[in-house]
Amino acid sequence: MAKFITIGERIHCISPSINKAMATRDPEPILKRAKEQIAAGATYLDVNIGPAENDGEELMKWAVQLIQSECDNVPLALDTANKKAIEAGISVYNRSKGKPIVNSADAGGRIENIDLAAANDAIVIALCSAEGIAADNDERMMHCQNMLERGMMLGMEPTDLWFDPLFLVVKGMQDKQMQVLEAIKMFSDMGLNSTGGLSNNSNGMPKNIRPIMDSALVAMAMMNGFTSAIVNPCDLRLMETIKSCDIFLNNTLYADSYLDL
Amino acid sequence: MPFNQKPQKFNASINTVEIGCGDKAIKLGGESVFPFYTFDGPIDNAPKVGVEISDMGLEGATPEMLAYYGEGASFADMAKKAAAMEGADFVCLKLEGGDPNGEDKPIEDLLAVVKEVGEAIDTPLVVEGCKNVEKDSELLPKVAEALQGKNVLILSAREENYKAVGAAAGLAYSQKVGAESAVDINLAKQLNVVTTQLGVDAKSIVMNVGSAAVGYGYEYVVSTMDRIKGAALSQDDAMLQMPIITPVADEAWSVKEAMASEADMPEWGSQERRGVTMEIMTAAASLAAGSNAVLLKHPQSVKTIANMIKELV
Hints:
The complex is a heterodimer. By secondary structure, chain A is α/β, with parallel strands linked by helices.
């Protein structure tokens, strides 16, 4: 099996400094976060430009070229509700380190993002929900099947759809946590790839608790065949847990310095 | 049903490491397929054969080796003859006389041999220390210095002395560094990690992951090399993508099949033929398991293995 893939989430327009940098086209704050995340071990970087209704195309092109040219063509996940902006980003994207990821499609109003990924030979994150969170795994897997069929009809490789079960917050939805893990197991049994915003589980918890919860959850998810996650790679405990799980899963060969790699 | 061949494709490759200079320079590695799997993809740089000579001259040489080199041959003569041997791609000079538990030759004497050999040939050169970690930590940096500009491979940096040997060979004098472990896959990787952490370019490292003579625990060597090539290609593990060089002659010629005299073992036949057979079998097995280069000493082994490689690649 291949090594677990981490998608760094820290270039996000919800952060005031990134928001401002995007608005004023100031490279420094964006490159700083890009380099920090790569140094911390991120495989992919997510580039979230928000809805970007006005200048999305130009902004995404600028961000993609900026980050790739300064960071050895690091592969990127293009994250916005603006489809034209994703296409514009892909048009200038360098694939030498990996295909672009379209973040994201769902089984409802955003299903056409699968078409966009298929037309552009991209990977797509496929959220197993339509209108609101799936009630149970029957519904999750129905969405999964619909999106998988749609992608395959359009000529996509099944492994280019990365299914997201949607992680749920423990505070309030503690009884649903095992369902999410079971969904990951079902994706894995079908030979499919998976991903998701893991840290949702610990929303609202004290800062010192979150890395512990996130680390425990990623280990359980990896045990069930989870293949990637959207994470904060600067969370050392989480990254150490992922690297250690990769050793147990025989995804990477052990060496005493494995945490440095 | 017709056979439908599906090539096994990897998005990773073994590093290409060049040794030597000019027209005779050789390239080790570069392939994106398992050993000899030319049906899956091209192998641009076929495995290479190196011929071992020693600072101990022809001590312990077999009658056929003595005949090939000629008694009383100087180091320069030996180097030229080794380079000219049919099937030879490069020469390996072993400085075994430096071993404090053996001849304990002073470093200046060994450097004189190194210089003589280095000046005699323009064939790519590999220099192997005396295997004593303390002596090698002193000796090998000086060898790297003496051969500056010749782009030689220095064998070897080990767990105990990788800092001294790796920094001198790989950083100060821009030679290629051999990283040696003894059939220990985790240490093989670890040594590459710490050597690159010193600042040595990953693409200047060649691994010696250990060997054994066939029949003497050789299956451990095979599984080690198998796992390394698997991790390098299928898991794209950059810390295991270094090409592999395997000293074969030492092991093959020091087991009883090669050592027992004809007087002791008349039913085993010619001692020289037995040694050659052990050397050829061990070399063939090493190449099949993933070695990008083997170190041999007998002219017949060198010729046979070079032919085998030519037929397969």
